[in-house]
Amino acid sequence: MRPSTTRRSAILGVISLIGSLALVATPATAASDAVAVHNPLLKEVLAEEEEPQPDDPAQSALCQSYLGHPNPYGNPAPNVDQIVADTVVPVGSQAGCSAAQNETTIAVNPRNPRNIVAGANDYRLFNARENRNDSASFAYTSFDGGHSWTNVAIPGLTITAGGTGAFSWFDGSGDPVVAFGPGNTVYFASLAFSRSAPLGGQDASAIVVNVSHDGGLHWGAPHVVAMDGVNADGTPAVTHIFNDKPWIAADPSNGRVYVTWTEFTYDNDDNYLESPIMASAGVDFGSHFGTPVRIPPSLTNFPGGITPYDQGSNPQVGNDGQLYVAYEASVCATAACDAAGDRDATVVATSTDHGRTFRHAIVDTNYDFPDTLTGENFRLNSYPQLAYDRINEKLTVVWSDDRNGLYDATTGASVRTNGDNVVSASGNGKNWSRPLVVGTPQDEFFSAVAARDGKVAITSYTRHYDRNGINLDYAYWAGSGTQSLSRAATQRITTVSENPQVQFLAVEPDGTEVQGVFIGDYSAVAIGNDLRIHPCWTDFRGRPGVNTPNQDAYTQSIQLRR
User: Fold this and answer.
1) What's the CA gap between 519 and 504, in Å, rounded?
2) What is the pLDDT of residue 55?
3) Opening angle at CA 453, ends 447 and 455, nearest 5
4) Of 438, 480, 503, 515, which has the maximum CB count within 10 A?
5) Where are the domains of the chain?
6) What angle do CA 247, 345, 20 make, to 5 degrees?
7) Which CATH architecture does the domain made up of 42-559 adopt?
8) Is 316:388 a contact under the CB 8 Å cutoff?
């Protein structure tokens, strides 16, 4: 996803690690219009600007310290490393380390639970134009229930992935999302982007979809949903739009597919104006997409309420064809978003006309994290994920926030984060249950959700197993409906706690190196018709016995109780 900058410099930008201002957070109760929210609102966060920073070979990522030594982690089984034929980074601060993979997605064939497709930001391709490895979109495909995996580069998105014409301008791709349609059709949505703006303005960007018709082994050329900064004929153009953070949902009964994303919009001086969630629909299995539609209200004659200062959209399609889109938005009295009662919120928009118009429901106040967890360096967000149970036709939305964090009542500074998974359910997208906290007294973040046949599973990273340190695990909570999740036991998935600072560093203005500033912006879980869940997360062990610690995409097949 796009960082809080006017350039996509997620792994190179200097990430601010100073805690944001806040007061004492509140428990998971439905928020009133006057509730106080204390960390900066999305409007402020999304408007921040950071300058990109080159990857200096004189700097040394933590992964280099393991080179020449045995991998300190043991056999990860039953956790499964999805990465096959990884490459070694040739230059830069990670030279000698295996390439990173992060920001995971996963989906299960609804008719064949042994066919699973996952994906990630994959940094194994070398970009000669940049003289370094850059992010690419890769699919990881399994036909044996997740025991073994085939890795496939999604074709045509960038210069390193065979892109031609307009796509030859793009240096990197990522923000992967996969979804199954009818039969063996699989959709892979990505962001493609350039690292420069040759004519000024914003870097070129595109929201694209590649399609597979054989369960994820072979992929067609990219289909454009939205593109700015480069014309269809391949000539560059000035743009004041940057497209970011796509998500995709497919109707399993026909060829209709929906893509949502965030459209960052700037004025002629590149000052942030707004970032509305956009939607586009296709009806022919992803071959063509319609004119994008704006989901949130406009700032013109803004009456107060949900603003177009948004990020983190997540769509689902109901059995009746209704489209639901969860996202985070600033909810403000005026467009300035400077009143005491202004807040960020988790919102779900519903469309009954195939994405042409939307009504909105505020689920709850979203108590955003400070810049990072206590003691950590990686960036955070509180964006929601949405699941739709095709058996009982219920919606479940989940997000992670810091409503129970400890803040200094005098200075407002974060003293100790306490990230929690927050969950709510609805039968119609309009009326939502009282939000429940699911988790431990330690930090949880980057939550994901899957639901089927009345069973709901939430997954997230957790610091529960290293309560006084920085190491991370991945865990899940499962129950029959959302109410039971508040009583669900924490089920550890990873077999050992892991150091997340292994790759991606930044340099503070005073010259201090900061390790582990990027681990991706979300994680994933999917469920099959056999009620097996397939969590998918960024792991930090690499492949013990084969290479040294690095970021890899991992999974595990777990049977839920029937």
Assistant:
1) 8
2) 75
3) 40
4) 503
5) 42-559
6) 100
7) 6 Propeller (2.120)
8) yes
What is the identity of the amino acid at 315?
P
Structure-derived torsion over alpha carbons of residues 31, 34, 35, 40, reported in degrees to the nearest 10: 120
For the chain, the helix, strand and coil percentages under 3-state DSSP, each to the nearest 5: 5, 40, 55
Angle in degrees, CA 118, 531, 84, rounded to 5: 25
User: Residue range 171-198: average pLDDT?
Assistant: 96
Q: Report pLDDT digits (tens) over 415-449.
A: 999 999 999 999 999 999 999 999 999 999 999 99
- On whether the CB atoms of residues 16 and 321 are closer than 8 A, the answer is no
Please report how many Cα atoms fall inside a 13 Å half-sphere around the Cα of residue 346, on the Cβ side. 35
**Residue 94's closest CA among 136, 138, 124, 120?**
124
pLDDT tier at 9 (50, 70, 90 boundaries)?
very low
Chain centroid, CA 100 distance in Å: 16
CA angle 349, 351, 353 (to 5 degrees): 165
363 close to 398: Cβ distance less than 8 angstroms? no
CA distances from 230 to 169, 189, 239, 264, 469 (A): 8, 19, 8, 16, 46
Backbone angles phi, psi at 42, to 5 degrees: -55, -40
- Contact between 127 and 133 (Cβ < 8 Å): yes
Q: Which of these, 530, 531, 526, lies nearest to 555 by C-alpha position?
A: 526
What pLDDT, on the 0 to 100 scale, is given for residue 7? 31
Q: Which residue has the higher pLDDT, 51 or 132?
A: 132
H-helix segments, 307-409: none
Q: For residues 490 and 440, is the Cβ–Cβ distance under 8 A?
A: yes
Out of 20-34, 180-194, 244-258, least confident range: 20-34
CA separation for the pair 436, 538 (Å, rounded)? 26
pLDDT at residue number 412: 87
Q: Which residue has the tokens 């280099």?
A: 64
For residues 345 and 41, what is the distance between their CA atoms, to the nearest angstrom?
10
Q: Residue 14 corresponds to which tokens in the numbers above?
A: 């200097």
- For residues 520 and 502, what is the distance between their CA atoms, to the nearest angstrom? 13
Question: Looking at the DSSP assignment, which residues form a beta bridge with residue 150?
Answer: 141
Per the confidence metrics, is the pTM higher than 0.70? yes
**Which of 343, 307, 313 is closest to 326 using CA atoms?**
313
Using the 8-state DSSP alphabet, how is residue 447 labeled?
A: E
CA angle 243, 244, 247 (to 5 degrees): 120
393, 333 in Cβ contact below 8 A? Answer: no
The token pair at 242 is: 């940057």
Half-sphere exposure of 305 (CA within 13 A, CB side): 12
**pLDDT score at 123:** 99
Q: Which of 249, 400, 402 is nearest to 322 (CA)?
A: 249
Residue 129: what pLDDT?
Answer: 95
Maximum Cα interatomic distance, the chain, rounded to a whole number of Å: 63
